[in-house]
Amino acid sequence: FRNLILYRFTQAFDLDAETLEEKLAEKTFRPLGDMEPAFTGWTEPLGKEGRQLVHTVGNCMMLCARKEEKILPAAAVRELVEARAGEIEEKEGREVRARERRELKETVLLEMIPRAFSKSHRQYAYIDSWNGWLVVDTATASRAEAFIDLLRECLGTLPVVPLQVAESPDAVMTEWLKEGGVPGVIQIGDEGELRDLMEDGAIVRVRREDLFSDEIRVHLEAGKRVMRLALTWEERVSFLLDEKFQLKRLRFQDAVLDEAGDVGAETAAERFDADFAIMTGEFSRFLPELITLFGGEEKDGFS
After folding, report:
1. Which of 47, 110, 133, 220 has a CA between 20 and 30 Å from the CA of residue 165?
2. pLDDT at 9
């Protein structure tokens, strides 16, 4: 996973892999019909190597949603609508008003959809029933919510809420830079974003800079808050943490990659299982420690 948005189950997730597979099978991915602008369904996390919609390793179940949508460039749609409106105005000697323009746009879209190219996107996530987490690999909250909506549609209910920490992430990260470091096993990197909290306030983005320099301290003393900060955990996982407690640009370091390379997997399925097990094992140790640095969870969910 390259990005993490975390959700907390508010009650135990007690579906086994077989039952979950049956429910997801009700909405498996299929190619778009000629007149469909988009469709989202479940597909095998292992791709062509897999046969199951739920891929289980230990207490974790990997899921993959695939969305295919037609590409309809807004500029092309707008240009055609304007051309049609111009023809009507010239022919009938009147102005085409907003409601009629909307109707023209709908007509244009219906004409363009069957001929449009399509693109697809896969969204991965896994359920950790032991820790009570749903972990979504995305940098965009809207995509995470779309994944959850699809899962909830198949299950009928999905008792999850965004994981919230007790202390404000931007306040904690600001204090770290003011105090000169992080307690415990987290190291601060050389990238960050500082922001003035006033409306339209200044934003300072730094990369490959010493975040404990006098220049950064001046910004902090002026009242700017740290909204993003590059961090590394135990020299095993590096990431960029933002003010919403979302992890971006996550990378495993050499120690983890070396362990993965020593597994000796012979097939794609074995490699997938090994990587999945290593990743979730790292997260199960790393995420609780990170959450603790921010005062723990704001509200207790399932644990």
Report:
1. 220
2. 95
- Residue pair 282/236 in contact (Cβ under 8 Å)? The answer is yes
Cα radius of gyration rounded to whole Å, the chain: 24
What the block records as the tokens of 109 is 């879209």
- pLDDT value at position 303? 46
For the question of whether the overall pTM of this predicted structure is more than 0.70, the answer is: yes
- Neighbouring CB atoms inside 10 A of 15's CB total 16
DSSP letters for the chain: ---BEEEEESS-----HHHHHHHHGGGB--PPPTT-SEEEEE--TTGGG---SSEEETTEEEEEEEEEEE---HHHHHHHHHHHHHHHHHHHSS---HHHHHHHHHHHHHHHGGG--EEEEEEEEEEETTTTEEEE--S-HHHHHHHHHHHHHHHS---EEE--BSS-HHHHHHHHHHHTS-SSSEEEEEEEEEE--STT--EEEEESS-TTSHHHHHHHHTT-EEEEEEEEETTTEEEEEETTS-EEEEEE-HHHHHHHHTS---SHHHHHHHHHHHHHHHHHHHHHHHHHHTTSBSS----
Query: With contact defined as beta carbons under 8 Å apart, do 257 and 235 qualify?
Result: no
CB-based burial label for 297 (10 Å; 0-12, 13-18, 19+)? middle
What integer pLDDT is reported at residue 112 of this predicted model?
83
User: Of the ranges 179-183, 245-249, 284-288, which one carries the lowest mean pLDDT score?
Assistant: 179-183
CB 156 within 8 A of CB 166: no
146-176 pLDDT, tens per residue?
Answer: 999 999 999 999 999 999 999 999 999 999 9
Cβ within 8 Å of residue 92, ≥6 positions away: none
